[in-house]
Amino acid sequence: MPIENRPLPELLSFLDTLPEPHILCDRDYRIVAANAAYRAGFATGRSVVGRTCYEISHHYSVPCDQAGESCPLARGLKSGQRERVLHLHHTARGEEYVNIELSPIRDASGEIAWFVEKMEPMNAARGLSDHHGLVGRAPAFQHMLGLVARAAPSNASILLQGESGTGKELVANAIHEASHRADHPFVAVDCSGLPETLFESELFGHERGAFTGATSRKAGLVEAASGGTLFLDELGDIPLGMQVKLLRLLETGTYRRVGATDLRRADIRLVSATHRPLKQMIAEGRFRQDLYYRINTFPITVPALRERASDIPLLIESLLGRVAPGRRLNVSPAAMQVLCRYAFPGNVRELRNVLERASLMCDGEEIGPEHLAEDIRAPVQAAALAEVQATGGVHWQDIERNGFLQAVHSHRGSRKELAQKLGLSERTLYRKLRQYQAD
Ligand SMILES: Nc1ncnc2c1ncn2[C@@H]1O[C@H](COP(=O)(O)OP(=O)(O)OP(=O)(O)O)[C@@H](O)[C@H]1O
């Protein structure tokens, strides 16, 4: 490398002092240096210097934006400013979600000469099968996770909207885990079915003798969550009277225990969730508009399972480990076809229940269609039959799409190896990935 094209030694020794993994790249995606934290946690044995970031982190042979992903380096070159994204990266521990922050470094003439890339793994979500936490890698899931990564480090109130069973509580927990409050409690409150009086004393606590049965003083959940995150699930179910008290808590940061006169200071971050249409409830006078604005600083929609159907095989692998630990269950291709075509109105919770039932019905190691409940098989079979009748056959594209996605999900090596395995050029592989994973 010509001397004028080398980064300043001061910059390199500064990067080495940073506790988070950092690499230094040139404008052509080439890694010119990696700090000690990166070498310890991310490098997989071989030296990364001289190789490209997309090859090391993604096992791609082209930059991310040409492989259908958002590339922070390309974005940084265009915008001239710092860019953040969440990417799935190959690391020394396998494939992980990593928060990437890319900062451009300019030379004396003001031109961008280098990029410093900081990487922080997001441990609350996984792109591979795992036995706990959030699992997924479909575009809709990654988009949602990108918003989680962006909002988590702030103190902003987050409203999670999504159908029942989509994983809102797990997402709330992931927000907590990725926040500065992770060492403090995560307290979840189910707001549905709690009468107003009980709701208030549960949330704010009560003094001794505050009401019949209050034989001792009790701290509330706001206090229990102190320093951490309070998760209000089914927030749309909170009675109007209690909505006022919640609004006061959020506006002043203070509350009173039931039966007490003194104000207490709250130190919580609020994450709430609902599957109800809050805007419609506001129009009907059932939900306060001012509270809505307070809780909804940063809205995140958790996608329905049918919007991330390409995650079904991965979720199955992960959930089987949770519902039948100790058994090495797998799903036959025919049963997989049925599950991938079913609409799952109850989302991931329904998928989990279906697998739990199937694991009880199956004595061996392979779950077949016969182990799935009739109400899962029937609509899929009816749809397939209708398709055959309407078109005179099953669409070849559907068979190809399902087979292709199954191969992608079960493959653990590089994209290059996958292309070879499927007998495709890498270009065609990326085109098909874009085409099939987008729906
Ligand atoms: N992405 C995911 N990866 C792994 N498991 C998931 C995922 N999403 C949901 N689950 C599982 O699905 C079930 C339902 O999730 P959860 O209770 O978080 O849903 P919810 O959206 O809060 O539902 P509700 O609106 O009914 O409260 C749980 O068992 C959870 O572990």
TrEMBL record:
GO terms for molecular function: ATP binding; sequence-specific DNA binding. InterPro entries: AAA+_ATPase (IPR003593), AAA_lid_NorR (IPR058031), Homeodomain-like_sf (IPR009057), HTH_Fis (IPR002197), P-loop_NTPase (IPR027417), PAS (IPR000014), PAS-like_dom_sf (IPR035965), PAS_4 (IPR013656). The keyword NADP does not apply. SMART domains: AAA. It comes from Pseudothauera rhizosphaerae. Residues 134-360 form the Sigma-54 factor interaction domain. The keyword Metal-binding does not apply. This is Sigma-54-dependent Fis family transcriptional regulator. GO terms for biological process: regulation of DNA-templated transcription.
